[in-house]
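Hi C.,

You asked whether I'd gotten around to modeling the 309-residue construct. I have! Everything is below, sequence then structure, no commentary in between.
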Amino acid sequence: MNEQALGWDDYRVVLAIGRAGSLNGAAKTLSISHPTVFRRINAIERALGVRLFDRARDGYAPTPAGEDVVAVAIDLEARIDALERQIAGRDERPAGTVRIATTDTLLAGPLPPLVAAFRARNPQIVLEFAAGNSLANLSRREADVALRPSGDPPENLVGRKLARIAFAVYRARSQRRADPETDAWVVPDDSLSHLRMARWLAERGHDRRASLRANGLVALRDAAAQGMGLCLLPCYLGDLSPALARVGEPIAELENELWLLTHPDLRRVARVRAVLDELRDALVARRDLFEGRAGAAESRGRSRTGKPR
């Protein structure tokens, strides 16, 4: 086997298949088509004169030779990423693109006006958002900054906790009263069953009265606003919706933390530093919203069933 016959793009293909265990997964990672990945891996194996993966019904498993190539690819990737971060750290211009990994709830809730204000002050910086439930790998430059709820941020990242995140039950404002024990609910589907809020709903049997399930909290918010059922939401999302009203106080056992993170090699990059500083200040200034105090006055004016006192 002659590994020198491979270029970096070839190693990326092998590494993507090795990590995903399938051509479809590798295609998504590389942003190319399934047939392209299929052609590439076949050409790579022909060039090396050895099979790198065993094809099975449940996916692609690396052969011993494939494991060797994947190991080399991982080492190359780490070296290239480290070099890119080192080069980026020399950039003192507050200009360019900053990739921010966050959640759809933050993008649908408090972030838009903060982003607009940032852009007005920093027109040379383009913000590129990636919303998802998993933490992007900042070491591999999948993102430059992560803004996420987390109780245990990765040790290889640096940053700070900005606020506590409170959760509460919400009803449609058009709904005159609410009874969490008998009313219908809109709840997360099985893809979000790992969330603490999903377990909380299941433990109380609220999920058994579900009128709708969805794989995102923004969709649940919108369904609750239409009167389809009660909904459990972070207060920063529920309190900002004029169509929703709280049912009771925030639930202490569901509290989480909001973290702003980056890789140590990137924190001195001017454009990344600008994003970190401004997001930190703007979000800390809205701490009451995240910690459930922004809607406290309304919540105190209502009983736990949602009826005016």
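If it helps when you're writing up: The longest helix spans residues 64-88.

Thanks,
B.
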